[in-house]
Amino acid sequence: MFCSKCGVQLNEGSAFCSRCGARVGPVVEEVAADVSPKSRLATSLLAVFLGWTGAHRFYMGKVMTAVTMLTLGVAYLACWSGIVVVAATSGEDGWPPLFWVLYGLGMVFALLLCIWSLVDFVIAVTGNFRDSQGKIIKKW
Fold first, then answer.
1. CA separation for the pair 72, 83 (Å, rounded)
2. Residue range 57-107, pLDDT digits in tens
3. What is the pLDDT of residues 9-43, one digit of tens each?
4. Rounded CA separation 118/67 (Å)
C-alpha cells in the first residue's frame, strides 16, 4: 500500500501515513497501481549530474528520448573537439569560419541539453515524472 498524499509505502493495516499523517483509505490501493517502483531520488540525481547523457531517461525506460539526449551530448562533445583541432591548426589571421560554426553548434547543443535536463530535474523533484509505463515516480 502507498500513501495517496506523499506516495510512501505503508505497512498493511495502517490507519495513518507514517510520514505525512494522512488518513489511509480505500483510495490508497488505487494509487499503488499508478506509482512506479523507480526512485525519485535516483531520477533526480541522474538528471542533475548525467542529464546530458540521458541517463535518467534510460533509468525510467524512456529509451528513445534518452538516445536523443545522448546523441545531443555526443554532438556537443564533437563540436568542442573540432574547435580544439581548428584552434590548434589556425594561424595568426584570426579564427576561421569553421571555428565559429562549431562554436555556435556547440552552444546550441549545450543550451538544449541544459534546459532539457533542468526541466526533467524539476519535474522529477516535484514528483510529477512518469516512467515508460505511465506510472508516476513518487517514492524517494
1. 17
2. 999 999 999 999 999 999 999 988 888 888 888 777 778 888 888 889 999
3. 888 777 778 788 778 765 444 555 688 888 899 99
4. 17
CA 38, CA 130: separation in Å to the nearest integer? 10
Region label for 83, one of left (φ > 0), alpha (ψ between -120 and 50) or beta (otherwise): alpha
Grid cell locating 117: 535536463
Q: CA torsion sign, 134 to 135 to 137 to 138?
A: positive
Q: Which three cell numbers stand for residue 111?
A: 543550451
- With b for 16 or more beta-carbon neighbours within 10 A and e for fewer, the 52-69 pattern comes to bbbbbbbbbebeeebeeb
What does the DSSP assignment read for 71-90?
HHHHHHHHHHHHHHHHHHH-
Copy the grid coordinates of residue 133: 509505463
Between CA 96 and CA 64 the distance in angstroms is 36
Q: How far is CA 98 from CA 66, 74, 83, 95, 103, in A?
A: 29, 19, 8, 8, 8
Place of cell 515508460: 132
User: Percentage helix, strand, coil, to 5, in the chain?
Assistant: 60, 5, 35
